Amino acid sequence: MSAPSQDLLARMALTFEAQQFLYAEARLLDTQNYKAWLELVTDDIHYWAPVVESRERRHRAGHYVAAADESAYFDDTRATLGMRVARLGFPGAWAEVPPSRMTRLISNVEVGEQGAEDIPVRSCFYLFRSRLETEEDSYHGVREDVLRRVDGELRLARRKIIFAQSVLTARSITTFL
Amino acid sequence: MTFDVSRLVDLENGLIDRRIFSDAEIYDAEMDRIFRRTWLALGHESEIAETNDFFTTWMGADPVIVSRTAQGIKVMLNMCRHRGGTVCRVDRGNAKLFLCPYHGWSYNPDGTLKVVPGLEADYRHGIDPTQWGLLEAPRVATYKGLIFASWNPEVEPLEEFLGDARFYLDCLLDRVEGGTELVGGMRRWIIPTNWKHAAENFVGDSYHAAATHASIMRVPGLEGAGGRVKDVVGYQAALDNGHGVGMWMASEDNARGGYGHLAGIDDYLKSIQDQLVAKLGELRATRLTPVHATIFPNFSIEFPFASLHIWHPRGPLKTEVRDLTIVDKAMPAEMKDMLRRHCMLRQGPAGTWEQDDMDNWSQTTYSSLSPTARGLMANYQMGMGHEHTRDDIPGRIDNKSSDINQRNMYARWAELMAMDPPPPQVPAACRSHSGEISR
Ligand code: FES
Ligand SMILES: [Fe+2]
């Protein structure tokens, strides 16, 4: 068997690095270390979760993901993410009193063609949250990210979250996906 | 019926039995007596701009199709008349026919029966197609872009139903030439709460803001999102048919401005100032800002830049929200986008305001499952005896923090719950023998 090509080794290294970034990010979110999480995003981030609707089959695979000028669960900049994080830090953010216990499973990580600066990364997520005694919500879907290398470290520059549900069965989203 | 409405709602003393938020029998009666009797808000005309455009939604617990036909807007039960297949399984689109996947009956966009496979070869005796079209809501009407329908053929005209609420709704729906349109798409999610806890919060519960939204007030950039808050006095207005509105009234010298946190809005309002005055008059153009409202039973509005919430009951303990964002059609594109992002940050399941509301409503609903707590009436006494009227605004008025609108809403609830449900609108050939729509 011939040795793996340089090209493959480079792709493996990049994929590993992207996976480690996403896992570390998931740990910060699970543990609600949101201030540290904010350090991982670029100043120009677009953090976006467009709504999803069912359409007839002839529309893209039977569902419709809203466009940039349409409705979204999140349509945030670095500034508004900062406001959300600051708010969650106050004792009167009742939907997180007491805090949720969260588990994020991040998988199916695929790294696309690397551009000059940006690395497209697609991943699947499953977030399970438990709160109070038996309050439970789950969220699942796909994320289309752009990671960017800033001073040698990976940072999150774009995130598009596409929930699988068109009607979310979760009562609220009090965290980040 | 094993419940006595007069014992559940004692408005003279401002007391309400918590049972109404969790009891299955009361819920079923609401679906018949309230949701099949009154007008219900369904959406906006901009959602079905072209002929054959449709969207699907709910009227109470009934799934419906709202369809733009050559003869105007039709609202039909989304249920095949053969054996009950779902004839439209998607949220919206443009369709020349609705085809039932089960045995292949098909219907025109106006609900009339189009094709019954095997009508001659298999049925042999034939059936009368005029009797087997999709069940149509007998009354459909629009008010300044908003679509309403009712199952009740005797329901009063929509304008009459809205009554004085129009004075406040027009501040949003009719402030500028061209009217309004929706931002594309809708946010939908399920809250573990009784629909009335959502409706009553928007009808008049200004009192909750300081505690529920305590975290908002601490964060620069989020805190002013409710509109002009400096140098204003707040009021609640209780309106006929159970509707209610909360508002801010600015002093004469603070008549303009106050939305500084929304980039460009003050300039936009200045640019339409002449139209505002011409359409709404001096008071509503310059000083009066509605902030929240519920059109009874299940349609709520967050003013002035602006979310529409329709609370679809999904059983006594669940509510599905349809959350729509509305803007002036004539607004510059970047203003629409700024307001869209404003609503995305504030409302919805991830909304910085809304998530804490929903958390509280689920607690208030679930507490009514406690047998001991059920025997304790909930307190709706704030401001009792202080109702008054004013010359400049319609309705029975009280301070911004008051239960006046909630008492008014539950008075209407009790009135409808004590009445017999409206008769069924079913073609004679296929009515059940009891003549009733059974659950
Ligand atoms: S149920 Fe629709 S065709 Fe039979
Ligand atoms: Fe609220």
From TrEMBL, chain A:
Transmembrane region(s): none
UniProt similarity note: Belongs to the bacterial ring-hydroxylating dioxygenase beta subunit family.
The organism of origin for this protein: Novosphingobium colocasiae
Signal peptide start and end residues: none
Pfam families the record matches: Ring_hydroxyl_B
Domain of life where this protein originates: Bacteria
NCBIfam families cross-referenced by the UniProt entry: PRK10069.1 (NF007479)
GO MF terms held by the record: dioxygenase activity
Protein name per UniProt: Ring-hydroxylating dioxygenase subunit beta
Keywords of the record: Dioxygenase, Oxidoreductase
Gene Ontology BP term (one): 3-phenylpropionate catabolic process
